[in-house]
Amino acid sequence: MALYSARNLVKSPTALGLIQLQINTLRAFSIGTQVSQKKTLAPKNGQNIVLVDGVRTPFLMSGTDFAKLMPHELAKQALSGILKKTGVSKDLIDYIIYGTVIQEVKTSNIAREASLAAGYNDKTPSHTVTLACISSNVAMTSAIGLINSGVYDMIVCGGVETMSDVPIRHSKKMRSLMLRANKAKTIQQKLSMLATIRPDFFVPELPAVAEYSSGETMGHSADRLAAAFGASRKEQDEFALRSHTCAQQAFEKGYFTDLIPFQVPGVDKPVDRDNGIRVSTPEKMASLKPAFIKPHGTVTAANSSFLTDGASACLITTEEKAKQLGLKPKAYLRNFLYVSQDPIDQLLLGPAYGTPQVLEKSGLTPKEIDVWEFHEAFAGQILANFKAMDSDWFAQHYMNRQTKIGAPDISKFNNWGGSLSIGHPFAATGVRLAMHTANRLVREDGQFGLIAACAAGGQGVAMILERHPDATPN
User: Fold this and answer.
1) Which residues are catalytic?
2) Residue of 257, 105, 253 whose CA lies nearest to 167
3) Is 123 exposed, middle or buried (0-12, 13-18, 19+ CB in 10 A)?
4) What's the confidence (pLDDT) of residue 209?
5) What is the tens place of the pLDDT at every residue in 337-368?
6) Which residues contact 185 (CB under 8 A, 6 or more apart)?
7) What percent of the chain has pLDDT over 90?
8) Angular region, 64: left φ>0, alpha ψ -120 to 50, beta rest
9) Where do the Thiolase C-terminal domain residues begin and end (predicted)?
């Protein structure tokens, strides 16, 4: 793809801040032999906070093997799985923060219900967070704050989404009638209220992946954004095909070590893989019709993420605590920030805004990022962010910057696939991004990873992870 070939950056072995795999040989300096060292980011408050490890259920297309499960049952699998994988006792967990977006009203504080179902100590507090597609990022960064403040030492974070069974409400007219009828004291009063029912009372209210402020679905926004930045249908299909191909190859190579099998009640075999990864052909992808803006839109089912069921969980603590327990963390959690912008015209540009800010906050340059992991809501969204990041005009007019930050090196970008192929259970994706970043840093012998994601409401997150010296590719 033309866009990608233009992004390949060749690193110079003498460039400042490069992370080398080999030790430099003797140099002709009068001061004698020097040895290069890897750059590291020191914590601002003197305390290293680490991502010990993380797990996730397989991510499945809604309506498939997880369809009969309630969200807390999926979350239970992830929350129990992280304890099994790390070997940490449930009694050592100080707090649990868990995300969800489409809430099941019966388990409104799903963090508590899921942790109890998973066998955690009933003395361990749990609370639920929500910030659309970056809800588990909020869980993780909230944990960083609580640990840095000295309140807790070990926190489990994660998120869950079950799009197979979303809450569908009666219309507001019907709800109002039912509440008033519940207060009626006589049969005559109840019959009088029933007589006011009209046909439109029975029209249900379904949740939609749409902006309340604009009423526009995210797919429409993605289509307009792709058009605004000139991301063609061919580019979008090519990027989506890359995502599926990379995910398939990573799975076959055994790289998805965060994935834990799930023996679903009523399902014969354990569910042990994501079922949305499908490597198609350019011709078949090109044959699909636009999904949102018809007939001339470029966003289709093939280059969009799909409604997904899944859950994730991770363990966050201090490096000191990890050493005391003999744990080998995956990565340091270094810097993070959240951004927001116009939810109508720039709904999905969170990565473009967040990336330069978190790099500057960390004192890093794009060339020093070895692993890039962006949430792929739509192929057009990713390409629009690339083009925005690679535009001096956009930097000057919208970001108060003199020059562009530049698009990520595609050879280091989402090399194990992304949400387009693996799936996107809204509140679970943040932990999946963190674990792919941490595990890729180990396998690809990198030092720094950058996570970025867009979210509903025109918001977004950017995070910096640094490989931990004890990390292993388990």
Assistant:
1) 133, 454
2) 105
3) exposed
4) 73
5) 999 999 999 999 999 999 999 999 999 999 99
6) none
7) 78
8) beta
9) 327-467
pLDDT in tens, 188-242: 888 888 888 888 888 888 777 788 888 899 999 999 999 999 999 999 999 999 9
What the block records as the tokens of 424 is 């996107």
Cα of first residue to Cα of last residue in the chain, in angstroms, is 33
Give the contacts of 106 (CB within 8 A, at least 6 positions apart): 70
CB 314 within 8 A of CB 435: yes
Q: CA triplet 345, 291, 134: central angle to 5 degrees?
A: 50
Q: Which two tokens stand for residue 177?
A: 């009638």
Are 298 and 290 a contacting pair, CB within 8 Å?
yes
Residue 100 corresponds to which tokens in the numbers above?
Answer: 């969800």
Element (H, E) at 61: strand 60-61
**CA-CA-CA-CA torsion sign (179, 182, 185, 189):** positive
Please report which helix (H) or strand (E) contains residue 336, including its range: strand 331-340
User: Do 61 and 276 meet the contact criterion of CB atoms below 8 Å apart?
Assistant: yes
Give, for 144, the enclosing helix (H) or strand (E). helix 135-148
**61: which strand partners?**
308
Closest residue by Cα to residue 247 from 211, 217, 277? 277
Which pLDDT band holds residue 460 (cuts at 50, 70, 90)? very high
